[in-house]
């Protein structure tokens, strides 16, 4: 069973994502802050981190920089599910994908659970 | 007692609406995703088809509102920031119309509207911003779909169509909107922001979808107008063909 750390500041939305992920057969650790997500990953190394970029006190980008600074977590894929339009990162795609390990970027207002599910399956499928 | 009226500049209200619209996205996302989750989970349980339909309708309504809000935010950002411009690139109108039809299909079926896509021939790309053009067409589509049941027609059709003119490639949405005339659209623009129903003969509500689309198209140096296609009136926009790619 793949383990996913969900970093989502909105409590109700986080709960919905958590229920959906569990229904699809994943184990989930829900976190609302960057620090909680680091602690959760320390407790149980995830197979994937799913995160919003707009967090309290830190940005998701800062979180990813910190996350990647730990050697053991450098290869763990990240999936952004954010209210920040991807167009705002049009010039930074290389930073997100190559340096921060973002394997998929989903714009929340236009992303159904079905799309998330397919994306997760694509990223987590065995090579 | 003296009353002091403090008039906030329109720009301040714009920024306030910007912040509020961002906040409104959260409950809408919660409703949409929760309804989607429940419809998915309940479909395996012994529940009535009516309940599942209600959950799917709830999801679609919330998603539709999210998209309108998102398009509104885009238009507001563009109007508040004088330096904000949409970068234009060669775009296939046919592909945008196809994706627009995909987005509108479910809501059209909810309203009993038959959606048709008419793409004649292979046209050269136009200069546009793909996501913004699609957002504008989807906003218009929602507005027209909501308006069509008032036409009283037994069979309601919405045509998404494209054709070529001397000025460029026209993309439009056409339906039985008898009161949609250039005069009524012009009058609606004048009334927009001053009355509750600026396009009263065509749309029952605030016509937000039309004016949001207009603002987005304006940011691409294009203008929404009333057009006709196969004798049906509709909203149309003429987009300049991309001369870059005509040489290819």
What can you tell me about this protein's structure?
The complex is a heterodimer of chains A (127) and B (248). Chain A is α/β, with parallel strands linked by helices and 127 residues long. Helices cover 41% and strands 20% of the residues of chain A. Chain A has helices at residues 11-23, 34-43, 60-69, 93-99, 113-124, and strands spanning 3-7, 27-31, 48-51, 78-82, 102-107. In chain B, strands 2-4-5-7-6 form a 5-stranded mixed β-sheet. Chain B is globular.
Give a brief description.
Chain A is an alpha/beta fold and 127 residues long. Helix content of chain A is 41%, strand content 20%.
Compile the SSE list and pairings.
The complex is a heterodimer of chains A (127) and B (248).
Chain A: E1 3-7, H1 11-23, E2 27-31, H2 34-43, E3 48-51, H3 60-69, E4 78-82, H4 93-99, E5 102-107, H5 113-124
Parallel strand pairs in A: 1-2, 1-3, 3-4, 4-5
Chain B: H1 10-42, H2 49-80, E1 89-91, H3 93-110, E2 113-119, E3 126-128, H4 130-147, E4 156-164, E5 169-175, H5 182-191, H6 208-218, E6 224-229, E7 232-239
Parallel strand pairs in B: 2-4
Antiparallel strand pairs in B: 1-3, 4-5, 5-7, 6-7
Helix pairs in contact in B: 1-2, 2-4, 2-6, 3-4, 4-6
Helix content of chain B: 40-55%
Biggest sheet strand order of chain B reads 2-4-5-7-6
Strand order of the largest sheet of chain A: 2-1-3-4-5
Portion in strands of chain B: 15-25%
Characteristic terms for this protein:
heterodimer, A: 127 residues, 5 helices, B: 248 residues, five-stranded mixed sheet, two-stranded antiparallel ribbon, 7 strands, 49% helix, globular
């Amino acid at each position: 069973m793949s383990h996913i750390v969900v970093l989502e500041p909105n409590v109700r939305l986080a709960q919905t994502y958590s229920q959906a992920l569990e229904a699809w057969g994943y184990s989930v650790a829900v976190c609302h802050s960057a620090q909680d997500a680091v602690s959760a990953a320390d407790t149980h190394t995830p197979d994937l981190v799913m995160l919003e970029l707009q967090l309290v006190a830190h940005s998701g980008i800062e979180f990813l920089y910190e996350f990647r600074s730990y050697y053991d977590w450098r290869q763990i894929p990240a999936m952004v599910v954010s209210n920040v339009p991807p167009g705002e990162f049009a010039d930074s795609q290389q930073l997100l994908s190559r340096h921060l390990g973002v394997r998929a970027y989903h714009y929340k207002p236009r992303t159904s659970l079905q799309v998330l599910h397919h994306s997760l399956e694509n990223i987590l499928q065995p090579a | 007692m003296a009353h002091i009226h403090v008039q906030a500049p329109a720009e301040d209200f714009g920024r306030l609406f910007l912040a509020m619209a961002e906040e409104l996205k959260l409950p809408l996302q919660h409703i949409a995703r929760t309804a989607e989750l429940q419809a998915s989970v309940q479909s395996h349980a012994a529940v009535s088809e009516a309940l599942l339909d209600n959950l799917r309708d709830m999801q679609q309504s919330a998603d539709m509102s999210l998209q309108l809000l998102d398009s509104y935010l885009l238009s507001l950002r563009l109007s508040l920031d004088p330096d904000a411009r949409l970068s234009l690139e060669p775009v296939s109108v046919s592909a945008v119309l196809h994706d627009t039809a995909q987005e509108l299909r479910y809501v059209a079926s909810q309203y009993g509207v038959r959606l048709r896509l008419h793409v004649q021939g292979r046209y050269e790309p136009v200069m546009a911003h793909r996501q913004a053009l699609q957002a504008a067409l989807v906003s218009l589509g929602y507005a027209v779909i909501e308006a069509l049941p008032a036409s009283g027609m037994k069979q309601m059709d919405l045509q998404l169509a494209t054709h070529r003119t001397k000025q460029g490639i026209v993309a439009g949405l056409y339906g039985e909107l008898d009161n949609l005339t250039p005069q009524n659209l012009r009058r609606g623009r004048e009334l927009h922001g001053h009355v509750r129903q600026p396009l009263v003969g065509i749309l029952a509500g605030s016509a937000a979808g039309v004016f949001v689309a207009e603002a987005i198209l304006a940011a691409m140096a294009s203008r929404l107008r009333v057009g006709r296609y196969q004798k049906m009136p509709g909203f149309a926009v003429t987009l300049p063909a991309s001369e870059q790619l005509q040489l290819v």
